[in-house]
Here is the input.
Amino acid sequence: MGMRICARLVRSAVSTMKNRLASSFAIAFMAIGVLGSVGALPASAAIGPGDDRQLTTPTGWWTYNGVTLAQIGNLVSAKNARLTDIQAESPSTFTVVMVSNTGAYQSGWWYYVGQTAGQVNAQLSAHNARLISASAYSTSSGTRFAVVMVSNTGANAKGWWWYYGAASFIANQLNIHHARLINLSPLPGGGFVSIMVDNTGSNATGWWWYYNASESFINGRLSANHARLVDLSRNSNGTFNVVMYSNPNTRWYWYFNLSPAGALAKANQLGERIIDATSYSNGFTKLQAVVMTDDLNSLSDKLFAIISPKIDSGKYGFYLKLVGGGTIAGLLQASQYEPASALKVLYHAKSIHEESLGNTFDTTTITYHFKNLADPKDGNICPDNFGSTTTTNLKNADTKMMQNSDNRMTRGILERYGKSNTLLYGSSLGLTQTVINHNIGCPTDSTHNRTTLVDLGKVYEAFQNGTVTTNPTWRTQFASRMLNQGNFGGFKNAICPIVQQEATSLGKSATVATNFCNAMTWIAKGGSYQYGGSFPYTVSFDGVSLTGVPYKRSTLIIPRFFIFGEYIDGTQINSQSELDSVNAARGKLFPEALRPYIHSALTGW
Here is the structure.
């Protein structure tokens, strides 16, 4: 297959260059290598801001395909981003990857397209920069390059070189410089474009490279080398060129033959950041090969490891936020999904708000549809399917909606206030992604309701911060009509064992653990849809809650409030054992999300 391995210290024989063209390149780039600091700079820390493919600090990131130079400029400006990868699809369109140019990723940087090798070298010299991405492509004027470079100073400073030509020539340069590749891509007419950096001292990393390799070969080498990909390019014959680094524990993935939208969706679902994207075509269909790396913080990774192995279809997400603060953990928390009955908390907030203003009352009449009033399960019906109606009062309807998840009462309350007014109220609370397409309990394939964990969290936060109402009576009514720590034993069953474990780890008594758990508060609303009556069937499950964790200041309890939500949506369930496994994983998410804050609060008890 013509593959070649290059490990940390390459000891390959010097190979004869393929042709004069490669030989002339060698002379040019040996010269620029000297200008680029061969032996002139001490080895820096192995990972700097410019080495984004080795970083796993969560950050904003984006990838685009088929974009022009002007579009790239607009995108990086609008997002305060910098390019980290560029591939020429044609002389005028490109595939790019970018990250927020802030925090751990902040760096001086530049990008250029349509450049000759000499022009690239001139820009490198002018900026005291080094390349991090290079793509060669054919034009009517000859081979040109699209490149991304970063400032080669400070934390980014490294001895480095770039060459293009035959693989044997590149291997020889790696030997000479004791270097490792960071980028390898095809050269029009044969050979490769390479970017390499010093691989000695604190820059040293175990690494390997292969070219013209199949998927199975690459996967075999990844396993044997305990490595992960940091660079991937595709050849016209469907084989790949890869650079892989030793990987102690980073979660990462690579895929090919995905649509650009499919690649993006895959990365978002996995909590990954695309670090390398290569576009190609299969007939008239654009496809991509991508490499991803972990983009979640440690708590999010912990929650991901609980739920992800159990979900093999549809989508899933979770969300932890401090009321009045920022997001603590999250996965697809801003992605729309079908919330089923969890959306009822918006109707509840609207009703409590109106009652607190004196616009409606506990005694206000609510008309609802029913099938069989004698059936305890009548509240589970789709109320749209039945014409018989009767009435109850608003307080009873609201309580049954929230504690029994009664779909009949839910439709009655929505009709009392009106769908448009309810959605307008949601907008006033900051909801931006919530859509009501059916009466809850009556979904169809084309009429799913939509919201996000972020939107539902805003309803709970609006209650806690007094936006729904500041009236103490109605604040009490908001919580008491919902499932709460006093009327739902499942809360303490889930959370008190965690409290006990953390109390024990801190040397606290069982009495302290019990008192602490009794001081916690909680309100919640979940939802569940099952589409189909027998296995296999598809489900949409979720739950969102507001929990008060009792921090102490001296002897005074000053709770901190946390919003937590999780969902699975459009997930196929094939057996009872799979359903049990999925629900067991879902049940672990909430207590594990709160565990570090329970631990922190217990230190003051």
